[in-house]
Give the backbone structure.
Amino acid sequence: MRNTILLTGIFILNFLFISESIAQKNYTIATIGFYNLENLFDTLDTPDVLDTEFSPEGSKLWNAEKYQIKQNNLAKVISELGTNKNKDGVTLLGVSEIENRSVLEDLVNHPALKDRKYRIVHFDSPDRRGIDVALLYQGNRFRVLEAEPLEIGIYDGLDKIFTREILYVKGLLDGEEIYVLVNHWPSRRGGEAKTAPWRAAGAQLCKNVLDSLQEANKDIKMVIMGDLNDDPNSPSVKNILNAKFKIKDVQENGLFNPMAQYFSRGQGSNAYRDTWSLFDQLIISEPFIDNDLTGYTYLNAYVYNKKYLRQKKGHFKGYPFRTFSGDEFLGGYSDHFPVYLHLIKEF
């Protein structure tokens, strides 16, 4: 009994000493997120693009008033992301389902976000609906060194599938080199099994980019993010990317999927036919989990699913509160919840 008390006392003293040592050090936090903005279109009917429904004459009667409601809603959500641990909010934010650079310029210049001084990396994609991916970043913390769109070469028989490209960005996050791949892989429309090879092609392209970079430097830090239209346990993510659910299972040059913890608990970022999926993911390379706080290290991850982002009533109660149900304007936010993670380092 006496020995137990003595050991307990030693443990408490040691814990207090470690806590005090940590408290005496200074840390900085960077926040990286992803948000499918659900059809952020301008109000113009663009020739040769399937966006007529999002125009004043289209089926959704999309006009300046509805557009501004949408912008207000998205700006509110983005302004809150990551502020639980980072007062400056999300440092890097990948986005999808945006029509062009113009809608992003309106977004980053919104009063709720303007002080963040977000900059934009964007390329027009060959997607038939004209929707793209992009990266928003705080210019005082991140400097772009390289950026380019990477085409996913996929076919339905002899017909080429025109889908979103993968956005490749290399940059310096507070002086530390990191790589980002922003994805919006082909949807499951037409059947999950039929379309699975198209998402597998997206995963393989990401893996090829990572492998190529690791040949030159095995310690590169990469974030693969996006609406993958697949879950953490889908073959594209689990087998091709080989993204692990648990840190202890990640091997050298491997990938860790911090969003998988939510999926394992039955939580998701989007819902369809009373089933939750976690298509929105942030996957990080092994050097982010080595606990070397002289560089950025993974801290924790979240699905941002506040009550106000949920449908409040009806058959879809609890689902993400979206902008439209069919052609009926609901005035919501998005049919996806955003996701984000925190990185930490000592300075």
